[in-house]
Amino acid sequence: MKQLLTISSYQILLAAILCLFTVHAGASTPWQVWPSVGEARLTWGPWVIYDSQLRSPDGVYQGEGDNLALVIRYHRNIDSEDLIEATKDQWRHLGVSATKRERWSQRLEQIWPDVKKGDRLIFVFNDKQGAFFQDNYQIGVLQDIEMSQTFLQIWLSPNTAYPDIRNQLIGKR
User: How far apart are CA 101 and CA 87, in angstroms?
Assistant: First the structure.
């Protein structure tokens, strides 16, 4: 009888460990397993600023409205203020109104950290909203669909300031 109790206790402990592992594994977000659509590198003169990768559930870019993840791995330390200013410049290039640029940049100020060399910032557009991650940790959600789509347009719009990067990200070499 004592041996049966020990086996039962062992089975309960094993089941508990498996449950914890399953819960932890299930906590990862889908973008982490999506295949890559394309990859690109942004340089400025001789300096590498970041490497980027676009992911989708099926590894294909279908266009606006897709579930997408934009993964950016930084090769330099960059203050969040500088990231936000660069984003505002790109939105200006795309013709976004000054009012929206200001409102949206205030939202980014609440979310974005300073980045260090090797950090990853990820933007996931899924189920009609956007979410920012730093590495594997969610750091903010955008409920504003227009802001989410316009953020991705910095890289994916045919009018982007970086058409070569766009073509590489969407799989057109």
Answer: 9
